[in-house]
């Protein structure tokens, strides 16, 4: 927390004791997203597995379809996963107001999600919380060129 200023919630987390917050790195001014997980809510083997997965993902170079994890920090009360802030909106928000997306856009989004998942699997990781809200589009609405990035909960 001492390296970042934490702001408002990006989105509600479905995991008790976890918040996903906007953040700003003090040294560079870079805007980030910080996943804050309270230690009292996760312990033992589960905590070790989650932390190891986050640290492993942070050690890998970015490949574009997966939000990059910059660093994993901890203090006495919580773990902090600092990750890339993807511009745009999540897939749920993007399609919520639309009756039907054009088939070409649906195909492009699905292909890019599958590429991201294959990349995770190639790295020995699985995405344990894949849902529309965890697929970020790098533009306000889906369409050719929209590039999903998903990696909020890997193991």
TrEMBL record:
Residues 1-155 form the Protein kinase domain. GO terms for molecular function: ATP binding; protein kinase activity. It comes from the Eukaryota. InterPro entries: Kinase-like_dom_sf, Prot_kinase_dom. This is Protein kinase domain-containing protein. It comes from Zooxanthella nutricula.
């Amino acid at each position: 927390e001492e390296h970042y200023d934490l702001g408002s919630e990006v989105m509600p987390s479905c995991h008790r004791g976890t918040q996903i917050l906007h953040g700003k790195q003090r040294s560079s001014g870079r805007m980030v997203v910080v996943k804050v997980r309270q230690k009292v809510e996760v312990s033992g083997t589960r905590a070790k597995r989650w932390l190891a997965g986050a640290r492993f993902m942070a050690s890998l170079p970015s490949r574009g379809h997966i939000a990059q994890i910059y660093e994993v920090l901890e203090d006495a009360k919580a773990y902090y996963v600092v990750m890339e802030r993807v511009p745009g909106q999540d897939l749920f928000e993007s399609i919520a107001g639309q009756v039907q997306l054009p088939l070409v856009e649906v195909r492009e989004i699905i292909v890019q999600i599958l590429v991201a998942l294959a990349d995770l699997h190639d790295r020995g990781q699985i995405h344990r919380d894949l849902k529309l809200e965890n697929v970020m589009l790098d533009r306000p609405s889906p369409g050719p060129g929209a590039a999903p990035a998903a990696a909020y909960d890997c193991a």
